[in-house]
């Protein structure tokens, strides 16, 4: 029962695992760029061997980053229902679209061919690969580094009037306030529970009831969030923040040899994935 | 005080607009000078306008009438607002609501990034200001693992890094436990000794006794002003304004009412003990003979 209210303990944003590996010490700009390149390659590649190769690379990345593989596997668990639903839908309804190959079953509108089976298997593999990759990224990079890296990578967009800094600041503040609001919510749940409200006693499938149960928490939480935001604005203004003004940056990243190697490696891996014909 | 004041508040009035034809006056014809190196305390009960006054000191609010000048710069001059705000730093009430970044040192850097300090110099300034508030070893920590007092010290460090001439603390200790409050008071005292101008808005009387000058606000006006000793000697007036006096003053006044030779203008606990000793020794001798 007590565990129900311990929200701030279970926050997984910024699940940084400091093992001081090479991957951890990469320049976040390069790490992010390499990540994006690999994700793109995974999205395009639709061959068995290419995806198997990517899967092997993803798993070996855990070893390079000195992160136990079960961190990645625990990320897949909650995704399994989605993978299964997606696979079923694809198997049943994609036979027409993914035509070609040998047809195994033909029954009404259901067509199962070697092509549609490939589509199903490849998408399941893609899922796993993407989860593994992003686990390695978030486990080896602190949220601060991630936002810094993103801000620098998006930097050129400043020229087309995209508010890069404001965007990065929004993300930083959002992350910064996650634990604060979790604590706030915990307090409110305890306050409401002590006055007889019950949370989580309805069965899980009674979605409407369980949603209604959350209302006495969500509304005050919004209230508090707005009050906090107003305070934060004052504090930021008092420290000379001017939206859109030019500012300097404290953290500076300097690319080293290993960063270029990492980026190059990701490109090579992507090319291999895409040229494998099977 | 022959120096020129850092902050001149000249006959300001301020009212909040409720809607088009209704305004709530908060400050009425307030004038106040803050001198370099001074430790000024502003007290008053809730709604007396003390926080509103403090928000005028660095241009967060601008007066409806009259003017506020920081080093001669009008706070209404939007072009020079950065200058004003980097000279007069402000620490707010809620420790959680003024930290912007996910890492302590990034938060201290925030103000410096805003005023365009070069990165190399930033590092020096951050090191120095974290050292002043005694938080150097926490620089790579995320702020949500810190205590309230530690968060407020980070907020102070963020201000100090901008090298202000004056630090305004707007009820900065009111959300803290007594341990956190002591932490902050120690930092403030240290800053004051190093020559920083301090303006603190508070309703904790124990924080007022260490100030050089106390300003008492009531209904948007300054009603009493002077050294802590002078102000606390007006006990009846303070009670009228629903303000406490320090325990020491209350005890002294009570004893004074019974025994006229007991000094009444005491504000520190030690002084009461001393005064009691002064009285009890001759009496002990008298009873002995």
Automatic annotation (TrEMBL), chain A:
It is a multi-pass membrane protein. Keywords: Cell membrane, Membrane, Transmembrane, Transmembrane helix. Coiled coil: none annotated. The keyword DNA-binding does not apply. InterPro entries: ABC/ECF_trnsptr_transmembrane, ECF_transporter_component. It is found in: Membrane. The chain crosses the membrane at residues 34-67, 79-98, 119-142, 162-182, 260-277. Its main location: membrane. This is Energy-coupling factor transporter transmembrane protein EcfT. It comes from Brevibacillus invocatus. The lineage of its organism: Bacteria, Bacillati, Bacillota, Bacilli, Bacillales.
UniProtKB/TrEMBL annotation, chain B:
It is found in: Cell membrane. One of its GO terms (molecular function) is cobalt ion transmembrane transporter activity. GO terms for cellular component: ATP-binding cassette (ABC) transporter complex. Keywords: ATP-binding, Cell membrane, Membrane, Nucleotide-binding, Translocase, Transport. Gene3D superfamilies: P-loop containing nucleotide triphosphate hydrolases (3.40.50.300). Residues 7-244 form the ABC transporter domain. InterPro entries: AAA+_ATPase, ABC_transporter-like_ATP-bd, ABC_transporter-like_CS, ABC_transpr_CbiO/EcfA_su, ECF_ABC_transporter_ATP-bd, EcfA_1, P-loop_NTPase. Coiled coil: none annotated. It comes from the Bacteria. It holds the Pfam family ABC_tran. Belongs to the ABC transporter superfamily. PANTHER family: ENERGY-COUPLING FACTOR TRANSPORTER ATP-BINDING PROTEIN ECFA1 (PTHR43553:SF24), HEAVY METAL TRANSPORTER (PTHR43553). This is Energy-coupling factor transporter ATPase. It comes from Brevibacillus invocatus.
């Amino acid at each position: 029962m007590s565990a129900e209210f311990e929200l701030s303990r279970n926050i997984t944003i910024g699940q940084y695992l400091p093992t001081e590996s090479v991957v951890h010490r990469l320049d976040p700009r390069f790490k992010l760029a390499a990540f994006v390149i690999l994700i793109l390659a995974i999205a395009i590649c639709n061959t068995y061997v290419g995806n198997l190769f990517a899967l092997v690379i993803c798993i070996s990345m855990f070893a390079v980053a000195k992160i136990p593989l079960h961190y990645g596997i625990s990320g897949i668990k909650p995704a399994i229902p989605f993978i299964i639903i997606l696979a079923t839908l694809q198997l049943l309804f994609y036979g027409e679209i993914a035509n070609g190959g040998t047809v195994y079953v033909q029954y009404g509108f259901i067509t199962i061919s070697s092509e549609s089976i490939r589509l199903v298997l490849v998408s399941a593999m893609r899922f796993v690969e993407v989860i593994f990759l992003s686990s390695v990224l978030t486990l080896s990079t602190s949220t601060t580094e991630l936002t810094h890296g993103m801000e620098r990578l998006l930097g050129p967009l400043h020229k087309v009037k995209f508010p890069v800094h404001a965007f990065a600041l929004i993300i930083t503040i959002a992350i910064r306030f996650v634990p604060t609001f979790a604590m706030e919510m915990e307090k409110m749940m305890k306050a409401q529970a002590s006055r007889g409200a019950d949370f989580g006693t309805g069965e899980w499938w009674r979605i409407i009831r369980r949603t209604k149960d959350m209302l006495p928490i969500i509304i005050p939480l919004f209230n508090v969030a707005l009050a906090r935001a107003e305070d934060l604005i004052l504090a930021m203004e008092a420290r000379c923040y001017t939206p859109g003004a030019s500012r300097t940056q404290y953290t500076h990243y300097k690319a080293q040899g290993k960063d270029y190697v990492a980026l190059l490696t990701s490109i090579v891996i992507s090319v291999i994935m895409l040229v494998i014909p099977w | 005080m022959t120096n020129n004041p850092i902050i001149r508040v000249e006959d300001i009035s301020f009212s909040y607009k409720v809607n088009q034809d209704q305004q709530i006056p908060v400050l009425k014809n307030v004038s106040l000078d803050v001198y370099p190196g001074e430790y000024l305390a502003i007290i008053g009960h809730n709604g007396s306008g003390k926080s509103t006054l403090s928000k005028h000191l660095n241009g967060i609010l601008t007066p409806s009438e009259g003017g506020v000048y920081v080093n001669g710069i009008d706070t209404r001059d939007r072009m020079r607002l950065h200058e004003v705000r980097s000279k007069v730093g402000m620490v707010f009430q809620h420790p959680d609501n003024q930290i912007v970044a996910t890492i302590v040192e990034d938060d201290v850097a925030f103000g410096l990034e805003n005023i365009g300090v070069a990165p190399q110099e930033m590092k020096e300034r951050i090191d120095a200001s974290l050292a002043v508030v005694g938080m150097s070893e926490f620089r790579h920590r995320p702020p949500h693992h810190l205590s309230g007092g530690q968060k407020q010290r980070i907020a102070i460090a963020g201000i100090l890094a901008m090298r202000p001439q004056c630090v305004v603390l707007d009820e900065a200790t009111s959300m803290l436990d007594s341990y956190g409050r002591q932490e902050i008071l120690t930092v403030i005292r240290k800053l004051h000794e190093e020559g920083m101008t301090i303006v603190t808005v508070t309703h904790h009387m124990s924080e007022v006794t260490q100030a050089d000058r106390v300003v008492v606000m009531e209904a948007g006006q300054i009603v009493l002003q002077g050294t802590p000793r002078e102000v606390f000697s007006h006990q009846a007036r303070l009670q009228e304004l629903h303000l406490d006096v320090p325990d020491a003053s209350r005890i002294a006044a009570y004893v004074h009412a019974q025994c006229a030779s007991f000094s009444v203008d005491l504000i520190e606990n030690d002084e009461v003990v001393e005064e009691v000793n002064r009285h009890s020794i001759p009496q002990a001798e008298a009873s002995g003979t």
